[in-house]
Amino acid sequence: MNLRDKLRGLLVRLYARRVEGHLDHAQVPKHIGVIMDGNRRWAKAAGSSTVDGHRAGAGKIEEFLGWCSETDVEVVTLWLLSTDNFDRPQEELVPLLGIIEDVVRTLAADGRWRVHHVGTPDLLPSGMQTILKEAEETTAHVDGIVVNVAIGYGGRQEIADAVRSMLLDAQEKGTSMEALAEAVDIDMIGRHLYTSHQPDPDLVIRTSGEQRLSGFMLWQTAHSEYYFCDVFWPAFRKVDFLRAMRDYAARHRRYGG
Description:
9 helices
């Protein structure tokens, strides 16, 4: 690392401390959703392989959760694999699935996070289903941040699964379709979502410069604040996180009821 890079790094750290010092900790989001975008473009810019990009993105996760643990954040949802990702070439998808399995194992072994899967299990390989189930069971007692790992996740699929679950629940209870139609409301549907009994995301962060949700938590983000960051996910820094938190706090003070 040359002198210029060292000075730049020092200035970034000093700026991060300044931003952190001015944060309003009374306005911290309870639930943060993260669309971790840009692994492949980061790899291309670095002259590395796509798999290396996914590994670098995976390596950023615990660092990000560490930043969250320094605040009053209670829930973090990480979008690791969408339903659309299954259309990727096998030479990319197979290593990506392995990297995601390693992420889940690491989170479960850390001891600070309570792991919860959000997504359609039937889309996933049986081995990954087992890993997710074991991670949820072994961390169920952890009194820390709930980490939703969105794997095999799609917003439309979640709503379809919620409706299906609601219908099956009514059938099991012997509820008629007429009675169910009368009873259906927003709260009932919410109880059948993957994130049932969790607060909706207050803040959604998307990296890489893309300014769209791509179907992320369509139901739950009706009142969320969005923060779009130009940095690719593997290069996301604490200062970028603090900027997102500062931006959220300013919007919350301006628009919150």
